[in-house]
Write a structure and sequence with these properties.
Oligomer: single chain
Distance between the termini: 53 Å
Keywords: Transferase
Number of domains: 1
Protein name: Transferase hexapeptide (Six repeat-containing protein)
Family: Belongs to the transferase hexapeptide repeat family.
Strand content: 35-45%
GO molecular function: transferase activity
Structural class: mainly beta
Strand order of the largest sheet: 1-3-6-9-12-15-18
Order of helices and strands: EEHEEEEEEEEEEEEEEEEEEE
InterPro entries: Hexapeptide_acetyltransf, Trimer_LpxA-like_sf
Number of helices: 1
Helix content: under 10%
Number of strands: 21
Mean pLDDT: 94
Shape: flat
Amino acid sequence: MVHEPSYSQNWELGHGTSVVTDGVSETVLARISITSGSNCSIDLSGLATLNTSLQIFMSDGCHLILGEGMMVNGALRLFMHEPSSITIGSHCLFGGGDVWTSDMHSILDKDTGERLNPAESIVIDDRVWLGAEVLILGGSRVGRDSVVAARSLVTGKTFPDNSVIGGQPAKVLRSNVVWDIRIR
């Protein structure tokens, strides 16, 4: 008889989907809910701390990479309703929020029928701190060593390294910064 790990009860994986969990404790894995389509790849091996929950939803052909030393302190939801990817760099800190690669519905040009809102992948570079209740939308890239203010709406732009960004929609509030997890 094969023993199924306790965390797998929260996972519904489509055919051909692979999940890498190297080095992640069963306690952390038990706080993760995954629903995936077919032929997805999920690399959770970088997840160091998960104090609340992580919900992952992926359609067919999606890819997720969580970088080394990732810390999550608030509920985090990652949604890929169409083929796309989310790549999160090393040593990132999340206060919780949502990351969406698509709008989940099509918006079409009335005359041409052209889709105006296709899914777009998201990149969060190394050492990014996302405050609580941040929403990151498709096509966004947050540069390394940056901070995203709580409740910001990041809408499909590329933000430079070493920035504080915030607002709805988010914009660069300050440049030439670094952050430290320790209180000084």
